[in-house]
Amino acid sequence: MKILFAKNNFAGPISGADETAVNYAIELKAAGHQTGMLLVQPPHDSQPLVARLRAADVEVDTLASAAFSTSLAAGRRILISAMEVFSPARDLILSKSRRVVFNLFQQYHSSCCEYLKRSNPDVLHVISPDPGAIMLIRAGYDTGIPVIYQEVGIPFHPPGFEEVYQRFVSVMPLCAEVAALSPALARELKRVLPHIGPAKVLPLISLDLNHINSSHSQPGAVTFGFSARLKHLKGPLRLLEAFRMAHESCAHIALTVAGEGSQRQEFIDKSRSSGLEQKTRLVGVYKTLEQRAAFMNSFDVFVLPSLTEGTPNVIIEAMAHSKPIIATGVGGVPDLVTDDVGILVPPDDIGAMASAMVRLASDPDLRQRLGSAARKRYERLFTPAMVLPLLIDFYERVSAKHSNGSNGHGSSLVTHEWLNT
Questions:
Q1: Residue boundaries of the structural domains of the chain
Q2: Engineered SS bond to 181: which of 29, 63, 190, 311, CB 3.0-4.6 Å?
């Protein structure tokens, strides 16, 4: 089969949607299928995901020029400045600017249609709800190519994104199928968008990097790890406060953080004012698989205190490295973190997170037991061997249904825990 993955752009090295699309494309290529990646905006020359795709012989194409992305970035900076100066009119400025951006992306509709006619994929797999994705879906529909849209988050989230998602909902009926990364996300899609129809569950593929030799956690300390954008919704400051509380009764703990973002400096300042500067380490953003493996092996327990989530790749990566998990029970996280692999806490309860950290820091046998179960759950749900048959069967059904109007029933030989949930 020929499967074309499509996104507006690559958001960066720590992006669940990017990682999902790239892993799908590479693993399907390795299994003998023809795959490609179409981006509306050109990626940076140093983008590591592009290097991974090209190393796997996956073709990467773009529709817009570098000048378009540069102009868009400049426009965003002007918008941010305008909202700061005219704060009472913030919502109006934001709404009007989003309409302008939406119209800019629609200008690429014709060139996208021409590209799709030339490449003629069996299916077009679109990931992430944004103005670029709206154009991609319409172009696929207009050229007669079955479109699969995959939701990686919670509909209408994060807060402030509702207007964008409402516009995106208008093109969902043009898709041959709508999918989600986990059962909880599929149920939420059905609840808030009942007219779209039930979403199929397509788990992400997470790479097993345990074969890469790398450093291990600090001797004598129980180290907690966090990897995400350092922004409010990911909860880095809440994690730091929970770590401070846990440190009062467990002085032998440490915290290592990967990521960049708007709260980085505030995180540093608060760690200093709390007297924890020597116990917290910020390592920046990992860009290669080797750096990712080194980070995953640098801690004992993974913590994700997000206020909103989809199905976080980083939790599954930690599970693949046999790490017990502490996470907030939001979005699709409860599909990943069951009682046997970690501890779920409410998103607004820093005390509960601190208590979970103390519990795991004080009980090495529990860490070992949860970590071992986490690895087994990863092997059961997210390896290429478990996900690829489900993914290929799904594509074949969509293509066959589009070509000859068959009922699209899948193979009875395909099995996965989430297949009928």
A1: 2-64+108-205+385-404, 222-381
A2: 311
Closest CA to 16 of 185, 165, 169, 167: 185
Residue 225 to residue 222: CA distance in whole angstroms:
10
What does the pLDDT read at residue 417? 87
Same fold, 2-64+108-205+385-404 and 222-381: yes
Q: Quick check: 231 and 259 in contact, CB under 8 A?
A: no
Q: Which residues, at least 6 apart from 21, have a Cβ–Cβ distance to it below 8 Å?
A: 5, 7, 37, 125, 127
Query: Which CATH number applies to 2-64+108-205+385-404: 3.30.505.10, 3.10.25.10, 3.40.50.2000, 2.60.40.420?
Result: 3.40.50.2000
Of 85 and 65, the one with more pLDDT: 65
Helix boundaries (H) for 301-415 = 313-320, 333-336, 350-361, 364-381, 384-404
Q: How high is the pLDDT of residue 330?
A: 94
Core vs surface per residue 66-86: b (16+ CB within 10 A) or e: eebbeeeeeeeeebeeebeee
**pTM (two decimals):** 0.88
Unique residue bearing structure tokens 């900076």: 77
Cis ω before 334 (30° cut-off from 0): no
- Report pLDDT for 65: 79
**CATH architecture, domain defined by 222-381:** 3-Layer(aba) Sandwich (3.40)
The pLDDT tens digits of the residues spanning 271-328 come to 999 999 999 999 998 888 888 999 999 999 999 999 999 999 999 999 999 999 999 9
Q: Chain-wide mean pLDDT for the chain?
A: 88
Cα–Cα distance for residue pair 274/270, rounded to 1 Å: 6
User: CA 420 to CA 81: how far, in whole Å?
Assistant: 49
Contact 150, 332 (CB under 8 A): no
Q: What is the pLDDT of residue 328?
A: 97
